[in-house]
Amino acid sequence: MMTETSLGFFGLSLLLSLSPGPDNLFVLMQSATQGRRAGLLVTLGLCTGLLGHTAAVALGLAALLAASPAAFGLLKLAGAAYLLYLAWGAWHAPATLQAEGKALNLQPWRLYGRGVLMNLSNPKVAIFFLALLPQFVQEDAGPVHWQIVQLGAIFMLATLIVFGGFAWVAAWLGGLLRSSAHAQRWLNRAAATVFAGLAVRLVWSEI
Description:
About 80% of the residues lie in helices and about 0% in strands. With about 210 residues, the chain is an all-alpha fold. It has one domain.
């Protein structure tokens, strides 16, 4: 049963999911270039990654990451390298005409894995959870680690709803562009630019 605190946190999570950030931009570009199913699979992957960050906060690992600049730096460099790899692939992707029903170019597990890696390789998410979730922990509401898990689940639900909506809208718009090889070529290059920009942003981010 949702308490007043849980409902308030759910509303905040919806607003945070709607605000521009690396993950929702990632969903938008994947949906626009690969189609609705791709966007939804990436969304599921991102939400799975949030499970890892929730566990890290509940177990105290996120606090260790925040206290270790070296570990933070290594993780964000790994995330940036992965984003640059995606940017290279998007830039060189062939512009083949395709309908929405055939827009899923990559295997489903690869798209799901992209979402998982995108989320887990971003240390800023772990630090964000470390700063956000404990603020909604109540002394008389049970074990702290269990409350953290519940709050993480609520945030994942909000993310699934918002990002799923992004996937549907972006896929519809992308479907219009994918009917033209020229437009699709520019869409792929726009996706590559976004991925590269996210990589640069991640590299220059600080705790």
